[in-house]
Specification:
elongated, two-stranded antiparallel ribbon
Length: 86
């Protein structure tokens, strides 16, 4: 049995339209891009870029024994448990 599909529309500016206009299957491309982006969303802020006061409080408790470090190779930031790094 086929799952019911919903149609979602959204506006794009002229520059984005020029870029995706010639993509052979825009719908499939956009679905894939959305699924990829959702797989990379911050688990704390859920992609908002901001923590609620309660999330900040939990983060502060977590940060007592954890640190944000920068990788020497790829230069990306990552979490390190300070309990096991010494």
């Amino acid at each position: 049995m086929k799952k019911k599909q919903e149609i979602i529309t959204f506006k794009v500016d002229e520059d984005l339209l020029k870029v995706i206009k010639d993509v052979p299957n825009r719908s499939e491309f956009i679905r894939g891009a959305i699924m990829t982006a959702l797989g990379s969303v911050c688990p704390l802020c859920n992609g908002s870029g901001n923590l609620t006061p309660n999330q900040k409080s939990h983060w502060d408790d977590f940060a007592v024994e954890h640190a944000v470090k920068k990788c020497d190779d790829c230069h990306e930031r990552f979490l390190v448990c300070q309990m096991h790094s010494e």
